[in-house]
Amino acid sequence: SGVAEPLAVVDACFTPVLAPFITLRSMVGMIDASMYAQIKSYPRDIVALFYEQLRHCSTLFINKVDKVEVEETARLLRHLERINSDA
After folding, report:
1. How many Cβ atoms from other residues are within 10 Å of residue 18's Cβ?
2. Which of 35, 74, 77, 87 is the most exposed place for a label (fewest CB within 10 A)?
3. Is 0.90 surpassed by the pTM of this model?
C-alpha cells in the first residue's frame, strides 16, 4: 500500500507483547510497473527503501503492466530476478 520499512514492521510485530500472537508466513510486495519505469527519477533514499522491500519479500506481484511497453516489463522481471531470485 506504499513505502514501508519492512524490517521495522516485522520488528514491531515481534515485540514481547505481540510475539505470542504473530506468525510470519510471508511478506508480499506489490510493484507498480509504471512507477518502476520512472524509478531513476525518485530520490535515492526512496529507491533504496524500495529495493530493501523487494529483497525481503517472499512473493512479488507486478501490477499495471498494461501501462508500460512489453520490453519494460521484461526489464523489470530481469531486475527482480537479480534482486530477489527466491520470490
Report:
1. 10
2. 74
3. no
Alpha helix segments (H runs only) across 27-69:
33-36, 44-56
Kindly list the distances between the CA atom of residue 17 and the CA atoms of 5, 10, 20, 25, in Å, as whole numbers in the listed order: 20, 13, 7, 19
Distances (CA, A) of 2 to 26, 27, 34, 44, 49: 17, 14, 14, 16, 11
pLDDT in tens, 17-49: 998 998 988 888 899 999 888 888 999 988 888
Check: CB of residue 60 under 8 Å from CB of residue 84: yes
Q: Which positions ≥6 away from 64 have C-beta within 8 Å?
A: 32, 33, 34, 35
The span from the CA of 64 to the CA of 66, in Å, is 5
